[in-house]
Structures are given as C-alpha cells and as structure tokens.
Amino acid sequence: MKVKIRPIAFVLVLLLGGCATVAPDVIGGGTQLEVRQMQTREYDTLDKQMTMRSVIATLQDLGFLIDNADMSLGAITATRLHQYKMRMTVTVREKGNDRIAVRVSARIGENNVANPKTYQDFFVALDKAMFLTLHKVD
Q1: What is the mean pLDDT of the chain?
Q2: Helix (H, G, I), strand (E, B) or coil at 41
Q3: In this structure, what DSSP letter does residue 23 have?
Q4: What is the pairing mode between strands 75-82 and 65-70?
Q5: What is the pTM of this model?
Q6: Are 130 and 51 in contact (CB under 8 A)?
Q7: Which of 2, 6, 40, 127 has a Cα at 20 to 30 A from 136?
Q8: What are the tens digits of pLDDT across the range 63-81?
Q9: Which domain holds residue 118?
C-alpha cells in the first residue's frame, strides 16, 4: 500500500494554520511619551486602597484572573486567556495628597500591546468601577 505524503502534509498545514488566533496590534507605535499617556490616567476622588480595589474589580469584570496584588507597592498583575494570553500589570501611586495615578501595561507574549482600544476599554470600565465605589454602590 502506497501512501501519498504530500496531500496529507498539505491538509495538516491547513488545519494547523487554521488554529492560529489573531491578537490585537502589538507592534509599538508612537513615542514613549505617547504610549505612556495612553496607559496612564489620574484620579482625584479616591485613596490608594480604594483605587486598588476598583482596579481589581475592573480586571475581574474584564475576564482577567488576578495573579498578584500588593497593596503596599500598588502593583497588580492579572492574566486573561481568551483567544490568546494577555497579561496586564497595573500600578497605582499617589501624586500629592489628593491625586492617584493609575498606569496599565498589557503584553501578549513578549510584545507590548500598542492598540489604544485595549487601554481605552480598561479605563472606561475603571471609571465606572471608581464611580460606583465612590458612591458606595454594590
């Protein structure tokens, strides 16, 4: 019995290629200042601990699993496994007596996510969570 290798190899390549997933734009664009502005927001309504709780709730609402949260450092890392593995790191730090800076960075594999929509979606959800926390709504 003679087996034809080429058609089988071709079918395998097609099947394996069909398993690939498309990740958001991960190639860096813009200057470092533009990327930092996209990744950072400042708030003047909550203290650091309340902001950290809002960030954790936001990440969970977006489908992330919290890997690590350190309140004293103001650092949270989380991972989401949806089509591809995305890891987010969020830092919360006090700026003066009445402002909090929140900076988020996202990575897929070894690549930084440069798609502004990723960060916009996070901050829209965080704004809502902080509003609810500020007004003590469960």
Answers
A1: 82
A2: strand
A3: P
A4: antiparallel
A5: 0.76
A6: yes
A7: 40
A8: 999 999 999 999 999 999 9
A9: 25-134
Is residue 62 a part of any domain in this protein? yes
Determine contact, residues 25/77, Cβ cutoff 8 Å: no
Is residue 3 in some structural domain?
A: no
Alpha carbons within 13 A on the beta-carbon side of 132:
13
Any idea what the CATH number is for the domain that residue 69 is in? Answer: 3.30.310.80
48 Cβ contact partners less than 8 Å away, ≥ 6 residues apart? 71, 74, 92, 93, 94, 100
The CA distance from 9 to 109, in Å, is 28
Residue 46 in any domain: the answer is yes
In the chain, the percentage of residues whose pLDDT exceeds 90 is 52
Reduce the DSSP state of residue 73 to 3 states and report it.
coil
User: What are the tens digits of pLDDT across the range 79-117?
Assistant: 999 889 999 999 999 988 789 999 999 999 999 998 899
Unique residue bearing structure tokens 């498309």: 22
DSSP assignment letter at 128: H
